Amino acid sequence: MQQTHQLLDSIERKVQNCVIRDQQYEKLLFSGRPSHIENTVDKQQKQLGDSKITLLDHHYQKKFEKMGQRLENLEKEKEVKVQISREQQTSDFEQEEARSIVNLNRTIKLYSSQISSLQEQMKRMQMNYQKQIQDLQIQLRKYQL
User: Which positions are tagged coiled coil (predicted)?
Assistant: First the structure.
């Protein structure tokens, strides 16, 4: 920015110098050598125009370069955010899978304990039935005798 201001100041000084020279050339013009003065003025005006164009080209080239760099930085930032998002989704999925596995393990333990409990009940019931059968067999023998 400061360089741009310096360049603009430099151009303004050149323009002022050209105006002063132009005034001097006008004085000389009336003194007798017009073609030489006109050629010199034309050359200086052309140089001034060329330097302005070069300055503008340089200024806009810098702007385009900065905009290109900003665009590249934004694209890189976008890629990083997309990567972070993917990693977060993967992490969330892995955490969900881990929770699911923990829940399945809990369910398996619960069912396992329920199965054990039911097996014990079945054994008790079987023993009770066998005892009842034995009692009934004893009673049957008593009645048969």
Answer: 101-139
